Amino acid sequence: MAEKKTGTLERDASRRVALVTGGSRGIGRATALRLAADGFDVAIVYAGNAERAAGVVDELAQAGATAKAYQCDVASSDQVKATVKQVLDDFGSVWALVNNAGVTRDGLMARMKDEDFDRVIDVNLKGAFNMARALTRTFMRQRGGRIVNLSSVVGIMGNAGQVNYSASKAGLIGLTKSVARELAPRNVTCNAVAPGFVETDMTAGLSDSTRKDYESQIPLGKMCAPEDIAAAIAFLVSDQASLITGVVLPVDGGMAM
Ligand code: NAP
Q1: Using CA positions, which residue lies closest to atom 6 of ligand 1?
Q2: How, if at all, do strands 145-150 and 96-99 pair?
Q3: Ligand 1 pocket residue status of 131, Cβ below 6 Å
Q4: Of 1, 96, 115, 221, which sees the most CB atoms within 10 A?
Q5: Of residues 46, 70, 165, 214, which has the active-site annotation?
Q6: Burial degree of 187 (CB within 10 A; 0-12, 13-18, 19+)
Q7: pLDDT tens digit string along 23-42?
């Protein structure tokens, strides 16, 4: 029988809470479902696709989790503050934050518009900062917690046509290590996962020739599934990873080694 724990949602007090940004699709959806299977209740944040988000909430409920979706632009510190407050009011606590929301605005540098550079940095990098900052007091007060940031192989290797995106993903590596150092005294870990090429909406538009070119650069010879990335995230938020902080874990078929 579900029992109420400080928040307004009826939920099992023995389950921890995860907040997954970009949880309505792709890697975020797979992560939310994996964490639900691992015993988490889950709050997902999405940008605008309410129907997809509602579908994931239904899937999470079917998996036995208490779940709710929140529309929020992670690039907006005001929206993030209000959303985190609402999540804490609803769920009572947050143990794991997965900063997964991300966008691309690809193009060669010579033709890249200011707004395409700024938007990618604002969502991918500042969004993770906004969420981590909004939850810092919660993590410090409970003297424990987990943050996982979604970087990318291109944050390590670079990629022509993605100066904005790769800069945001490289920036997340510095943010991860600094947050790890800042919050370690309170027993909070912060790590990054760096996926290679993953079958999601983000890569669905790649041409066959680009896809073949990318696949030829992967020693293990195939693209990742969202569930491969979710498994690494699930490990990093688990009790087994309590002494791992400040690392960047590639899940890329060997692409970035
Ligand atoms: P995706 O399928 O394109 O999904 C993006 C998710 O982010 C959606 O849930 C979207 O919400 C949400 N989102 C976008 N902008 C947002 C904003 N401003 N505020 C809040 N939520 C926002 O992406 P994905 O391929 O699963 O990628 C997930 C993460 O992994 C990203 O950070 C990406 O950079 C990283 N990554 C992906 C790959 C890859 O090959 N796919 C490789 C390396 C790293 P809506 O549904 O409402 O639009």
Answers
A1: 22
A2: parallel
A3: no
A4: 96
A5: 165
A6: middle
A7: 999 999 999 999 999 999 99
CA dihedral 159, 163, 165, 171 (to 10 degrees): 100
* Cα(117) to centroid(ligand 1), Å: 16
The residues, ordered by sequence, that sit 6+ positions from 87 with a Cβ below 8 Å of its Cβ are 17, 19, 43, 68, 70, 94
CA angle 103, 50, 100 (to 5 degrees): 35
pLDDT, one tens digit per residue, over 129-170 is 999 999 999 999 999 999 999 999 999 999 999 999 999 999
Q: How far is CA 155 from the centre of its chain?
A: 15
198: which DSSP letter?
B
For the question of residue 214 being annotated catalytic, the response is: no
- What is the model's pTM? 0.98
- Mean pLDDT, range 80-98, rounded to an integer: 98
Between the CA of 124 and the centroid of ligand 1 the distance, in Å, is 9
